[in-house]
Amino acid sequence: MQTLRWILASLHLIGLGVGFGACWLRAVRLQALAKGTGSLQAVLNADNWYGVATLLWIATGLWRAFGGVEKGSDYYLNSTAFLVKMALFIVVFALEWVPMVAFIGWRIQLKKQRLPDTRKAGLFATLTYLELFVFLLMVFAATATARGLWY
Ligand code: HEM
Prior knowledge:
The protein contains 5 helices and no strands. By secondary structure, it is mainly α. The protein has one domain (2-146). Helix 1 packs antiparallel against helix 2. The longest helix is centred in the first third of the chain and has 34 residues, at 2-35. The two termini are 25 Å apart.
């Protein structure tokens, strides 16, 4: 159990590193695309890494919270810090919704060998920067959760 706990904690933090980096890269590349100097494929590559990291975050996070490997579900469901962290995660999801749907559309267009309409790249860059800011807040909520603050 200790080994599983250790591996899940490591993967969760690796997800944080990769996800934060990929999210930042996506924002920078979207900005470049909006200015006409970037490449659409570069944006989608960063988005792929961001997607993989998010899956790792969610899977390891849920396992740690509700799989009985850490402090147990009761602890987390009664922790205000944890609930704040989850609320912030929903904020990220809300910010991500429109770009996520647009990127799926862009990928479909590319597969059909059509040029996607990327005029909203600037807006998506702003939304992605906002997601980065919310991730920073989530780190404060996560470390508070682990230390029993706001319980
Ligand atoms: C569905 C999503 C997530 C769930 C369910 C979740 C759950 C958890 C749980 C249960 C822990 C262990 C806390 C403890 O030691 O008692 C943890 C630790 C942590 N999480 Fe998450 N997490 C999620 C997403 C994220 C995201 C997106 C970030 C970063 C922005 C993040 C950052 C952290 C950090 C930094 C720690 C380590 C805290 C420490 O040991 O000081 N988590 N998470």
